[in-house]
Specification:
With 190 residues, the chain is α+β, with helices and mostly antiparallel strands. It has 2 domains: 34 residues; 127 residues, no CATH class. The chain is 36% helix and 12% strand. A hairpin with a 2-residue loop joins β4 and β5.
């Protein structure tokens, strides 16, 4: 009788431990999941270097800009200026506005974008149009004198590569449409 009671006690302890372990795993999974930043997670692994988000404050023309934490910048205050065409030089304001909206900007140093860069643009988002750019769904090619290789830019992200190959394409596909996080919307009072 005594050995049967001991076996039942052991079984109860094992079952209680199992239930407690499953409960603890469930609680911890929910805890860490809730720490994920909205708009930051996506499918696939992170690509490129991530910089702290400096916000997307809109400045008035001539207003003093705060310092940026990367060169070229990947986030920060700027005058919201739309891009009318690509494969040309951009201002910092245009570049940051494109990133804020969710566009991918790819800098190159030549006078014309290489054919493989145009192919990448076409494969990921199609040819550039101002409407596509204003919707945050464009790959914008940026003629940036002095650039060696290519620099892929997304909101708070940068990738330096030598060729317009699979890694740059993966970067563009991964971050296209992921601009600055939207502030929480509040309900209007009736």
């Amino acid at each position: 009788m005594k050995s049967r009671a001991t076996a039942l006690e052991r079984l109860a302890i094992v079952l209680a431990s199992l239930v407690l372990s499953i409960g603890l795993i469930a609680v911890m999974s929910g805890f860490f999941q809730s720490k994920d930043q909205a708009g930051v997670s996506g499918s696939g692994p992170a690509i490129g270097q991530q910089f702290p988000d400096l916000g997307d404050a809109h400045l008035q023309p001539g207003e003093l800009r705060p310092p940026y934490n990367s060169e070229p910048p990947t986030s920060g205050a700027h005058v919201p200026l739309a891009i009318a065409r690509d494969a040309t030089t951009l201002t910092t304001d245009q570049e940051l506005e494109a990133l804020e909206l969710g566009d991918i900007v790819i800098a190159y140093g030549d006078s014309q974008p290489p054919r493989e860069l145009r192919s990448l643009q076409s494969a990921v988002a199609g040819p550039f149009t101002p409407a596509l750019a204003s919707a945050g769904q464009a790959v914008v090619l940026w003629q940036r004198p002095g650039t060696t290789g290519f620099i892929g830019l997304a909101w708070t992200r940068m990738l330096h590569v030598r060729t317009a190959g699979d890694l740059l394409k993966s970067f563009a596909e991964r971050y296209l449409g992921q601009g600055a996080p939207s502030p929480p919307r509040t309900k209007k009072k009736a």
